[in-house]
Amino acid sequence: MELAPSRIRVNCVAPGVIRTDMTETLGEETLRDLAEQTPLGRLGTPEDIAAAVAFFASEDASFITGQVLTADGGFIT
Fold this sequence. Notes:
Order of helices and strands: EHHHE
Oligomer: single chain
Strand content: 5-15%
Strand order of the largest sheet: 1-2
Largest sheet: 2 strands, parallel
């Protein structure tokens, strides 16, 4: 609310389990279990999160502020 009059939008992306170098340390069995627990049946990719961030940065989101976009494949409901 404080920054909106200056046309500054504040949003965030809350990613779920994303397949990265960091998650590779969990091991293939754990990653498979996490994917099975995710309603979409897979782990996220860095590209999935980049798309969410790009949306918030685009004109398509020009009337959105103060929101959290959870990109987790339905893992947390």
